[in-house]
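User: tokens in, sequence out, please.
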């Protein structure tokens, strides 16, 4: 399967607001949820997304200049092979409901023949209002700082037992350590989940 076929299929099967861009920043695929963003911003439901400059669109409709520069540089680093994934939080424009922020996550789709990244898959999602702000000077109460204490963690799904409840490890870290998490993917998992693109890792390492 070519990279274009794969990225198109992923765009329309993954949940959330998803689109794909090529190395020039042009949109090559966009699902219905993403198109709803455009309608909320005042664009026609019949707006033709294919071939539109994604960064120019973000500049006109959504992102302030400083944030746009960060987004452009981060996604360019994926195309250049300097990073595997990108995850960033950006201020939400007034026409979108919910909290103050939304998350953009980028994932490379390399060519099977030479491993070069031809497309980046972009997911856009709302950040719940409860995580809009964090305490300026949080009090860290980590179980790891308590000698001879044990942290019950599920051997299968890795959820952590907190009191009488099981919570995902990501939520536990946010609540107990007051940290914000960003998504990445290690080379071992990349090879396991996407074996057809395992050669891309060797190409990036060269």
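Assistant: Sequence out:
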């Amino acid at each position: 399967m070519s990279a274009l076929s794969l990225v198109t299929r992923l765009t329309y099967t993954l949940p959330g607001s998803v689109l794909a861009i090529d190395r020039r920043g042009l949109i090559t695929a966009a699902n219905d949820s993403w198109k709803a963003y455009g309608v909320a911003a005042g664009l026609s439901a019949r707006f033709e997304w294919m071939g539109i400059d994604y960064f120019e669109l973000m500049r006109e409709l959504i992102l302030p200049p400083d944030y746009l520069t960060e987004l452009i540089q981060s996604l360019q680093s994926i195309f250049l092979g300097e990073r595997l994934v990108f995850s960033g939080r950006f201020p939400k424009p007034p026409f979108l409901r919910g909290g103050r922020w939304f998350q953009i996550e980028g994932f490379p789709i390399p060519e099977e023949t030479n491993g070069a990244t031809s497309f980046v898959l972009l997911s856009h999602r709302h950040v719940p209002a409860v995580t809009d702000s964090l305490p300026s000077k949080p009090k860290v109460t980590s179980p790891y700082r308590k000698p001879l204490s044990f942290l019950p963690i599920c051997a299968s799904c890795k959820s952590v037992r907190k009191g009488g409840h099981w919570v995902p490890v990501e939520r536990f870290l946010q609540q107990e350590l007051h940290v914000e998490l960003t998504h990445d993917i290690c080379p071992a998992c990349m090879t396991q989940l996407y074996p057809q693109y395992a050669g891309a890792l060797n190409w990036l390492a060269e």
